[in-house]
Write a structure and sequence with these properties.
Structural class: mainly beta
Helix content: under 10%
Low-confidence stretches: 5-9, 11-28
Mean pLDDT: 92
Strand order of the largest sheet: 1-5-4-3-2
Distance between the termini: 66 Å
Largest sheet: 5 strands, antiparallel
Order of helices and strands: HEEEEEEEEEEHEEEEEEEEEEEE
Length: 338
């Protein structure tokens, strides 16, 4: 006959096992999905919103590889895990996922994102160890995934850290990825392009430089001697056309310790440029990594994130701004509250 101690110990052991099983099961099945979540209650960096005409829903993704969905931009449901990467690929079994973007193209949905394999080191520059990181593309038949790998194992050079890939069809009718070559290695971040295969399953040809971080007239940092110089970071490109047909790009860098977004325009109307930078940033301090989309009520909106420190932890929050593209330049109208 069991003692009271043995019986109590057995009950506690069973309870602990059930608790551990629940933790493992939840970890395997993904995060807990929440409903009716206001946009400003979501914690997400690099927010990208696809207004999907087919489903009449908004799908928002960003850093972390999760997805949120909404019918009105006001009330959101998520997060959902939507990627299925190959653990045998260069990404490894559990890659970090940054700055995911969603595009509907030729009846499929494409997931442009930055993947990092922290177990693989490709270089050390100025004392910084650089991990294997690159922009890559996944595909799905549905806007909510699952998004899976395609044909090519890599899109960009394996010995260079690249990030924040975005999508554009240029005037030659060909698809391109525009992305950042990270400043950690070249010490002066660049914006570059590479042509993609017609089905976006891989890249074609050689990389071409669009502009350098040091070309910016508005970004700023202090160099080792305390002098004011352009900031070395290029971040978050997104392409657009104005009402007059002018090709522009929003992108983000820093003014000292403020994360800020600027705009640059192509004189040729193509990705080949030359790219001419506006003198001043277009967002207030602490707002950046933006993209543009048209809402179902036909407003042109810009999605960005802000960040703040809470108890030593950086919190990033999605925000919307209304913009005007009807003229020759992008004009920010002001904050937009759904």
């Amino acid at each position: 006959m069991k003692s009271d101690f043995q019986a109590t110990f057995q009950k506690l052991s069973i309870t602990l096992l059930l608790f551990l099983f629940a933790i493992v099961t939840n970890a395997q099945n993904g995060p807990t999905v929440r409903k009716n979540v206001p946009l400003d209650s979501i914690r997400l960096s690099d927010p990208f919103i696809l207004a999907d005409q087919e489903t009449q829903q908004y799908f928002m993704t960003g850093t972390g590889g999760m997805l949120w969905k909404s019918k009105d931009l006001k009330s959101w449901e998520g997060p959902y895990r939507v990627t299925e990467t190959d653990p045998e690929s260069w990404m490894g079994p559990k890659p970090m996922i940054w700055a995911a973007e969603l595009f509907n193209y030729q009846d499929k949905y494409y997931y442009f994102a930055t993947f990092t394999n922290r177990d693989v080191k490709i270089d050390t520059v100025a004392g910084n160890v650089i991990e294997r990181r690159a922009s890559h593309v996944l595909v799905s038949d549905e806007p909510a995934g699952p998004f899976v790998p395609m044909e090519d194992p890599t899109y960009l050079p394996a010995d260079k850290p690249t990030l924040d890939g975005t999508f554009w069809i240029d005037r030659d009718g060909k698809p391109y990825m525009v992305y950042c070559y990270e400043w950690l290695q070249n010490l002066n971040g660049t914006m570059e392009k590479i042509e993609l295969k017609p089905d976006l399953s891989g890249s074609v040809g050689e990389v071409k430089l669009l502009f350098k971080a040091s070309d910016s007239p508005w970004s700023r940092e202090k160099d080792a001697n305390g002098n004011d110089v352009p900031n070395k970071v290029t971040d978050g490109p997104f392409l657009f056309e104005t009402g007059s047909g002018r090709l522009g790009m929003i992108w983000t860098s820093w003014i000292y310790d403020n994360y800020v977004q600027g705009v640059v325009y192509s004189e040729s109307g193509t990705l080949d440029g030359p790219w001419i930078h506006e003198e001043d940033p277009i967002t207030p301090p602490n707002f950046g990594h933006g993209m543009l989309f048209t809402s179902f009520d036909n407003k042109t909106l810009m999605s960005v994130h802000s960040h703040k420190s809470v108890n030593g932890r950086t919190i990033r929050i999605p925000h919307l701004f209304e913009v005007d593209l009807t003229g020759d330049k992008l004009e920010v109208v002001g904050p937009y509250v759904p």
